[in-house]
């Protein structure tokens, strides 16, 4: 989890806790924040021994309360989003830091953890890499999502811990290269602290949601996260190249695709983040220029560098393949879609639908203000657009929302708003 850098301070249970507040906004408001930078039980060494992992599996199989989990990745440095460190804490057992690279996976923990509620912050960020190493939740509590539903203005882990528990967390290593070995001691302290008070935060958030009458809403959201299928591979992932929106020519799109595929293969083989092999800006520039020969390619920014000159044959061959493609094999400018067009085109394509959408957005904004829940958490904006672009027959809004994945609490709150938008613009 990435957070701004803060000064080194101590755990509130340590001998000395007198220090300046760690957050300037909190300091300005006059609130005292107790610093929390040293784990209460010390900084554990990463577990690399399979026998120690088995012992943790045995201990976790014993009945206990919720389990706090977190994972650290090296997405900006390495290919993919695998976990390079997994933090786990159960208050009666303490904190463990698992090295999934040395251990291979953590699948032996899956059954022992099956009966425990997982507590994570921004669960959707960590669940894919945790599933990759063999563990998945059956129930969970997401403290970030809880903060959103509660209507709190700042839902990062640090701000939530400060507001709800009065503690200031260590900050500064979330964006580090966690594939580094050995991991520095201060990184390990940071990692351990990310799960140090997650259980306490979970309890405080649950109390707040209960007092607001929103705990059941949050529980439905958490269940939906657990039940969600694994993310399927993206169609044409090369279309996410930065700068591609400026290119509307199919031949140049083919050049982006060929360069992207070559870069992706090289990044996978070298276990490097793709942008470290060749930045998106260079791909877009080469595709736009479509240089006539290799020397012209090497005159472009980035490609003139020493590393890219050594790999010039890869990039040139990719561009040549794009140039030789027959017209019928060139990629379309846009992919066909069964969804609605972008909202900014509705007024031209279907003024009545645009009026429905405007009325619904106004109603949802008022509902958001009334209940203190962000609009995007009240109902998926994509589902709103799909429902209003081609309204269901007989205005069966509830069924359409349920089919679109809305949770019962969302349907109850938002269906009247969407129905009102349909009636007002009929």
UniProtKB/TrEMBL annotation:
Database matches in PROSITE patterns: HRDC (PS50967)
Ranges for the HRDC domain?
A: 249-329
Name a biological process GO annotation: nucleobase-containing compound metabolic process
CDD domains annotated for this entry? RNaseD_exo
**Segments of this protein annotated with the region Disordered:** 1-29
Q: Which InterPro entries match?
A: 3'-5'_exonuclease_dom (IPR002562), Exo_C (IPR041605), HRDC-like_sf (IPR010997), HRDC_dom (IPR002121), HRDC_dom_sf (IPR044876), RNase_D-like (IPR051086), RNaseH-like_sf (IPR012337), RNaseH_sf (IPR036397)
Cite a single GO MF annotation. Answer: nucleic acid binding
Q: What is this protein called?
A: Ribonuclease D
Species for this entry: Nakamurella alba
